Amino acid sequence: MPHSGEAVPWELHPPLEVALAKAVKGIPPDSALPGLMVFEPKLDGYRVVIFREEVRVSLWSRQGKDLTRYFPELETAAAEMIPAGCVVDGEAVVWSEGRMDFEALQRRLSAGRVSLLSMVQDLPASFIGFDVLGVAGLDARNLPLADRRALLAELATVWSPPLSLSPQTTDRDLAREWFEDLGGAGFEGLVAKSSTQPYLGGKRIWLKSKHISELDVVCGAVIGSVQRPTEVVAGLPIDGELRIVGRTSPLNPADSRSLARWLRPPTGPHPWPSTVKGTTLDRFNRDASPVDLTLVKPIVVEVAADAAWSGRSFRHALRYRRARPELAPSAVRLPARLKDAAK
User: Fold this and answer.
1) For 215, what's the count of Cα atoms within 13 Å in the CB-facing half-sphere?
2) Active site residue 277
3) Domains in the chain, ordered, with CATH?
4) Which of the following is catalytic: 25, 42, 203, 297?
């Protein structure tokens, strides 16, 4: 049997279900959660749980995948700065030119040993802790968040980069400033939590609010037919070319009928092929199987998108709003916030 303070208790051995967040619009009111509401910035990285066992450190994803080998710098830092018997929940991020770079994280998972070492040297990862599940070999999940936060803050007193403690506040005005001002650094929005809740793995006990903005994109193709489109394939001008930057979530019947009124087959050369890899529509989808596109005469449509932009594409599905037939596709520009993120 492991001794208290030396090893992670058996009930906390990986893989472990993590607490999740339910998406909401805007900053939730105080009544949305029991107890005192606390806010944290929503980070744009990989959810990672660090397990500091007696003789080793391991890092696990929310899907139960061992990520240790992809983050050797975090493994080393955790071994040096987190006591044995602790389990810490947080986010692995990579900073590049003052903002979080999700694509740099993504590249690590397909990198060979030599290229991974180069990535670690050029774009080292950081870990931002926001919860603690185990301390000194004891399960802390049944403690209220306020107590877990106090334990985590105590652990973090000896942390230094690449380990850091996530900011947290009960001040709604400060939370609103974070929500409105931190998007330029790649923060996706806010996470709201209850100070009295225990840690419930696999449950959506928190609330997340993402930056959502509406923008014009070029619909150069659809999934489905011209008469009954099911998804919009969106394009934006990048480096002088109209490039596929994502797809919408499935259209409801009313939106499908409304959009179909404006769709026409292309009348000349088209900038896109009629078949693309699945990763072209979603760069972070592991399925590269071919997807057939129904090419159309480019038309401007308005969509809603969150802040997750890789520099070349949207990481999450867009939400279709309406067709903009009064606008010329040639007038669509890459929004400044996306252009800055691509640098």
Assistant:
1) 23
2) no
3) 10-210 (3.30.470.30), 212-342 (2.40.50.140)
4) 42
**What is the Cα–Cα distance from 221 to 87, expressed in whole angstroms?**
47
- Which contiguous run of DSSP H or E holds residue 260? helix 253-260
What is the per-residue pLDDT across 68-115, written as a single tens digit (0 to 9) for each? 999 999 999 999 999 999 999 999 999 988 888 887 887 888 788 899
Report angle CA 294, 299, 303 to the nearest 5 degrees. 95
Q: Average pLDDT in the 229-241 region?
A: 94
Ramachandran angles phi, psi of 188, nearest 5°: -90, -15
CA distance linking residue 313 with residue 233, whole number of Å: 12
At residue 35 the predicted structure's pLDDT band, cuts being 50, 70 and 90, is very high
Nearest one of 282, 304, 302 to 223, comparing CA atoms: 282
Tell me which residue of 227, 243, 245, 241 sits closest to 305, measured CA to CA. 245
The phi, psi pair for 179, rounded to 5°, reads: -60, -40
Tell me which H or E stretch contains 152.
helix 145-155
Instruction: Name the strand (E) or helix (H) holding 219.
Output: strand 212-224
Question: Quick one: tokens of 119?
Answer: 């990535």
Is residue 122 within a helix (H) or strand (E), and if so which, with residue range?
A: helix 113-122
Q: Are 235 and 218 spatial neighbours (Cβ–Cβ below 8 Å)? A: yes
Q: How far apart are CA 49 and CA 69, in angstroms?
A: 14
Residue 3 has pLDDT above 50, yes or no: no
Residue 4 pLDDT exceeds 50: no
Express each pLDDT in 123-141 by its tens digit. 999 999 999 999 999 999 9
Burial of 247 (0-12, 13-18, 19+ CB in 10 A): buried
Sheet of strand 189-194, all strands in order from the earlier edge strand to the far edge? 20-23, 204-210, 189-194, 37-42
